[in-house]
Amino acid sequence: MPLDGIMVASLAKELDCLLRQGRIDTVDGLNKTDFLLKIRVPGISYNLFISISYSNPTIFITQNKFQKPQVASSFTMFLRKHLEGAYIKKIYQYNYDRVIMIDIETSSELLGKEKKTLVVELMGRFANLLLLDNDYKIIEAIKQLSVLEENSRGIMKGLKYEPLKNDKLSPIDRENISKIFDDISNLNNETLINKISGISPVLANYLINKYRCSKLGFYSFFNEEISNYSPSMTNKDYYYFNIFDKDVVSYKTISDMLYDYYIKNIEAKTLKENNIEIYRCVQTNLKRINRKLLKLENELLKDKNADDLRLKGELLLSINQNMGTRSSKITVLNYYNNEEVDIDIDPKKSIKDNSQLYYKKYKKAKSAISYIEREIELATNEKEYFELLSFQLNKASLNDLIEIKNELIENGYIKSKQLIKKQKKQKPSYMKVECDGSTIYIGKNNIQNDYITHTIAKKDDLWFHIKDGHGSHVLAVGENRYSENVIRCAAKYAAIYSSYSDSSSVPVDYTQVKYLKKVPGKKGSFVTYKNHKTIYIDPKREE
Known about the structure:
six-stranded antiparallel beta sheet, five-stranded antiparallel beta sheet, 12 helices, about 35% helix, about 20% strand
């Protein structure tokens, strides 16, 4: 859920408590909508993260680092000029709306001390970042709006800053809130949202449901609830106190919660973008390979009559070489089955020359068959590789997708906009679980599978894979790796991360690593193995 005014009030207090009197050391623009201010207060430095993206406008304190671009935007340069070296005098909310004001003080030998205000508007598609002078006139704004535009309040250099109109009651207006909502008939979601500033639909729904069990007057109940502080987040929503009827993750500060929510959303967005690009690449190549295989198989069928060409050449040599003919067809006896055969010939050439022509066609067809069969083998291997990637995409996390994308870039299937710099090899993000004193490694893509099978594994470790299907390489390492419990546990993960995961009886082969052999010249993580045993697993019932 987006920030609402009630929550922004609590967030502004938190920011003010930590950052007041802090010095803004540096300003960095992370992209078109995200900015990072490094603020030093006595004894500690904080990063103040500000995002005015329409999908997730936010502001929070963090000590985590962010990747910075090499070239700063013009707005970033403007902020650096006016903010770096300034001191934060106060952080507060404007009129219980989703607007945070940061009063700063700058000083210079020429102008002396100056007061300015950084305005962070966190209102979805109206989100904006502005800098005002001492008279609240706009020095600069990242999003400028002309007064001539419909429903525009006008955001341009030199204009006086006008916040969005808000005629609702302040949450601290006890008298008027009590007048309206002490009459229980007025208590509904729509009235709450339209009458009291800063209330979101989710908060309104929570207040109405909980007030039914309260013996307090509405304002006393309302004030007591919004005075709570226990930042909580579910899979999809968050709030500065727990208003959810489901399991939540609790946080010490609103900033910690907003950081996690931001990172979660960035990962989800990146996951979606990478998934679309990789999925498109895989499907496009599968279609290309299927078309190629169909064409090759049709050509192979045509060239399969090579023996017929050789036979015709041989039969032509069996007749009178000096026999003349004006016809383009000649009938000869096939002495292999005593049947007559019609053979097309060139009447301008001799019988011997026509025979030699058939032998040339025969040799060419035989050579083509060998070439086509090699091409079919290569295309079939490539098809298996992309079918494996297609399976791996269904179970991939963000890190898995990044590794798959890097693999496709290295193999030339995806063009990289930037040159790939050789870096120190990092360990792939494989899964690792403990079972009865043994460690089980699970690979979810080719890079992870190769690393587990060919780098981590020792020759006496146990290796698992589903029988005759796509799946993860699973490795059991440790003293108890041969125990029934560890074998069943490792086989369970091999079944879960396989193309048969929905089956109730999945055959899983397992053997010692020394009996594995990597398939030479084949993309992906394909191996052959021998001396294996098979165990049948129901992945849904195994504990």
